[in-house]
Design brief:
Number of helices: 8
Strand content: 15-25%
CATH class of the largest domain: Alpha Beta
CATH superfamily of the largest domain: Aldolase class I
Low-confidence stretches: none
């Protein structure tokens, strides 16, 4: 059974950011040929006319049974959608065959520091959504894109909150203004893993991008990669071939 919670080596997860089913399927097939072991499909990039269960099933079938991670952020083609609409789209993706649903840390409370809701009613709604995903047989990742440099203590605070809300995978995305911050983030990774029994996806942008290559050596659960750096792809993410070369040559 497809899962993001049990594997021998950190997964090579190919991110798929496309506007149409045809583009998604073409990029999935190309990613498979390059060695992808899982897929991250950002459903918020998909144009609304393609958002049916039948079309999602067609896209997911191209993944050939590998685990599928989906996002439904209120951005791009979903800009202006309510949190409830974004949550329903996640559940539709799960019904169509996705494995792991990304519940953002600020869903139901946008603008919260660290992208982590603290309003009790918002937290209650997040927990209810996570419970519903689990009830339907899905796995849950909670993501916080802090858009700032953070301390070890701040990262521990975020991770504890995500774990307490029921996430199976904790995702924290920070930035670094210099390589001097990287040791702090490595310490944060190690302390989070020592304290929780959760999988951790810890990513850093700007001058901390090296962690996207070496983070799994310290316990990060997967590489987020791209087949190529197209107009919609994240420049910070390595290609599948680059990440595979690092993983398969650095690990024993």
């Amino acid at each position: 059974m497809a899962t993001f919670l049990n594997y021998e080596k950190p997964l090579l997860c190919a991110m798929i950011l496309c506007n149409t089913p045809k583009e998604c399927i073409e990029k999935i097939k190309a990613s498979l040929a390059d060695g992808a072991e899982a897929f991250g499909i950002q459903l918020c990039k998909l144009k609304k006319e393609y958002r049916t269960k039948e079309i999602l099933c067609e896209i997911f079938a191209a993944c050939e049974g590998l685990p599928i991670y989906i996002t439904s952020y209120p951005i791009d083609e979903s800009e202006g959608d309510s949190d409830e609409e974004c949550a329903r789209f996640l559940l539709l993706g799960l019904e169509a065959g996705a494995t792991l649903c990304d519940v953002t840390g600020d869903i139901f409370e946008h603008g919260a520091p660290y992208q982590l809701a603290t309003d009790p009613e918002a937290v209650k709604k997040q927990k209810a959504l996570i419970d519903e995903i689990h009830r339907r047989g899905g796995e849950v990742l909670m993501s916080c894109h802090t858009n700032q440099s953070t301390t070890v203590e701040e990262n521990l605070m975020i991770a504890r909150a995500q774990a307490e809300r029921g996430a199976d995978v904790l995702k924290i995305v920070n930035i670094a203004s210099s390589l001097e911050e990287v040791p702090t983030y490595i310490e944060a990774i190690q302390k989070i893993l020592a304290e929780t029994d959760k999988k951790l996806l810890f990513l850093v942008g700007k001058d901390g991008r090296i962690l996207r290559y070496i983070g799994p050596e310290f316990g990060v659960c997967m590489y987020l990669c791209v087949y190529e750096h197209g107009p919609l792809d994240a420049d910070d993410q390595p290609t599948i071939k680059q990440a595979k070369a690092v993983r398969d040559n650095i690990r024993h």
